[in-house]
């Protein structure tokens, strides 16, 4: 293991990132959040088109999962701000380096800007006519399924989703070079897509794309899915992944503070 691997190095890196995010201007966080929403939506566009073009459902899902990770790779390499991975800045609260209301304010701004980016790409998808009827049917089916998931299933699926996603992001943080970083992100995000778990920012795109294509979705349906999946994603990344890693690194981090 190298010096930039392990819970201690990960915690120190996320604490550094937390301070960096807290010092960013509002407009910078807003624009980087919009970009992240757009990047995730672009990955979803490719995944939908590939999945719908394959008649064998299992193969279609697998191949679709292989192209989806482009979005998260773009986010990490271009340093955009994505709600799900940014949940790990909760480490700054655990370490006593910032107040929880400050972190919640940052996360609220990021998730709202992710929503704007996702809606923008969903709008362009509809207006550009890039989806044939098979893809339209797929995105509508996905959206209807998501808004009718039972509360417990939706919440636990969202928790699991961000455990997977944040684990992949943590692995990427441990890589110094871009090629290994891309490889671990590609594998981990493909696992998330294959798992079928609920990612709030990906869902933003699916739900609004389906809405623009005429799916019978209400504002209540969309709010239900996005609020529950956001809460579950926060627990998975902000409490479980970051919390456990902080506990593992706690003694070393506290020694440095003293």
List keywords for this structure.
258 residues, mainly alpha, Glycerol uptake facilitator protein, 0% strand, globular
Characterization of this structure:
The protein is mostly helical and 258 residues long. The protein has a single domain, classed as Glycerol uptake facilitator protein, CATH 1.20.1080. It has twelve helices and no strands. It has helices at 6-22, 26-53, 57-67, 70-78, 83-86, 91-94, 100-128, 133-147, 151-173, 178-195, 200-212, 219-257. Helix 9 crosses helix 12 (219-257). The chain is globular. 48% of the residues are buried. The model has no long low-confidence stretch (mean pLDDT 91).
What is the gist of this entry?
With 258 residues, the protein is mainly α. 81% of the residues lie in helices and 0% in strands.
């Amino acid at each position: 293991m190298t010096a930039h691997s392990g819970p201690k190095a990960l915690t120190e890196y996320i604490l550094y990132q937390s301070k960096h995010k807290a010092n960013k201007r509002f407009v910078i966080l807003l624009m980087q959040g919009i970009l992240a929403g757009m990047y995730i939506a672009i990955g979803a566009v490719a995944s939908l088109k590939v999945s719908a073009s394959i008649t064998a459902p299992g193969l279609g899902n697998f191949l679709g999962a292989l192209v989806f990770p482009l979005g998260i790779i773009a986010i990490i390499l271009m340093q955009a701000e994505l709600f799900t991975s940014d949940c790990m800045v909760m480490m700054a609260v655990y370490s006593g380096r910032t107040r929880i209301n400050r972190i919640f304010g940052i996360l609220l701004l990021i998730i709202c800007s992710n929503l704007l980016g996702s809606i923008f790409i969903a709008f362009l998808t509809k207006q550009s006519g890039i989806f044939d009827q098979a893809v339209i049917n797929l995105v509508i089916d996905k959206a209807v399924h998501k808004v009718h998931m039972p509360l417990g299933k939706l919440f636990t699926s969202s928790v699991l989703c961000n455990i997977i996603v944040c684990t992949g992001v943590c692995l990427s943080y441990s890589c110094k070079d871009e090629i290994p970083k891309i490889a671990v992100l590609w594998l981990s995000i493909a696992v998330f897509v294959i798992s079928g778990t609920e990612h709030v920012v990906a869902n933003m795109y699916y739900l609004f794309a389906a809405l623009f294509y005429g799916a019978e979705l209400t504002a209540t349906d969309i709010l239900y899915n996005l609020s529950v999946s956001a809460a579950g994603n926060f627990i998975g990344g902000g409490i479980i992944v970051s919390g456990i890693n902080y506990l593992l690194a706690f003694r070393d981090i506290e020694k440095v503070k003293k």
